[in-house]
């Protein structure tokens, strides 16, 4: 389990990275290389935060996504995005017992 102190540090770092990214990336790059980027397993930051039960990080990602993404992108590339074996973030959260993020 992540300690509160460690978690707050992660949020601070995430905010700092966001501010720097806004300065150097275009909106298209922020979308594709920041909010919707996938790791080698096809998982986005949104997915990873959900699986880890990081509600504060999910909230921040959601706020940024509402600013940058269209409703279609929110639906298809964030909420319903699939990993390399076809699981959505919802499937993975349930598998990991992170039911709190589903409510």
Provide a short characterization of the protein structure.
With about 100 residues, this protein is an all-alpha fold. It is built from 6 helices and no strands.
Describe the structure.
Helix 3 runs antiparallel to helix 4 and helix 3 (45-52) packs parallel to helix 6. The protein has six helices and no strands. It has helices at 4-24, 27-35, 45-52, 55-68, 71-79, 89-95. The protein is an all-alpha fold. It has one domain: Serine Threonine Protein Phosphatase 5, Tetratricopeptide repeat. The chain is globular and about 35 Å long. The model is unreliable at 1-6 (pLDDT under 50). The protein is 66% helix and 0% strand.
Tell me the layout of helices and strands:
Elements: H1 4-24, H2 27-35, H3 45-52, H4 55-68, H5 71-79, H6 89-95
Helix pairs in contact: 2-4, 3-4, 3-6
Helix tally equals 6
Q: Main beta sheet, described?
A: none
- Rg is 14 Å
How do the SSEs run, as a string of H and E?
HHHHHH
Percent in helix: 55-70%
Work out the number of β strands: 0
CATH superfamily: Ankyrin repeat-containing domain
Portion of residues in beta strands equals under 5%
- Under the CATH scheme, which architecture would be assigned? Alpha Horseshoe
What is the global morphology?
Answer: globular
Mean pLDDT: 85
Runs in which pLDDT lies below 50 for 5 or more consecutive residues are: 1-6
